[in-house]
Amino acid sequence: MMLRRYRDTYLLSSSEGRRLVEEYYDTAPYLVKVLEMCRDVSWIYEQLYRNYLSICVSYIEEKKYEECKRVYIDMVQGLQEKYLYN
C-alpha cells in the first residue's frame, strides 16, 4: 500500500514520475514473465525486496522521496539490463 500511495501521490505529480510509471506498466508484465521462467525466481524476488523495495519503503517512511525514486530507477535498469537486454 505504501508503494502504491507513493506512486499515486508523489510520482504521478511530475512529468518525470508519470514517465517512470508508464515505463513500469510497459515493461513490468514482460519482465515478470521472464523472471518466472528462471529456476531461482524465489531468490531473485527475495533479493529485489531486500536490496531495493525495503530500502524504498524506508525512504518513503523518512519522506526521502527522491532517494526512493533513485533506488527504483536503479532496480528497473538493472533488471532490464540483466533479463531483457542481454
List keywords for this structure.
4 helices, mainly alpha, 86 residues, 83% helix, single chain
Short précis:
With about 90 residues, the chain is mainly α. It has helices at about 1-10, 15-35, 40-60, 65-85.
**SSE run:** HHHH
Total number of helical segments? 4
3D shape: globular
Helix content: over 70%
Summed over residues and divided by their number, the pLDDT gives a mean of: 95
In total, how many beta strands? Answer: 0
Main beta-sheet annotation: none
Structural class: mainly alpha
First-to-last CA distance: 32 Å
Unreliable residue stretches: none
Radius of gyration: 13 Å
Strand % is: under 5%
Descriptive account of the structure:
This protein is an all-alpha fold. The protein is 83% helix and 0% strand. It has four helices and no strands. The longest helix is centred in the N-terminal third of the chain and has 22 residues, at 15-36. The protein is globular and about 35 Å long. It starts with a helix and ends with a helix. The model has no long low-confidence stretch (mean pLDDT 95).
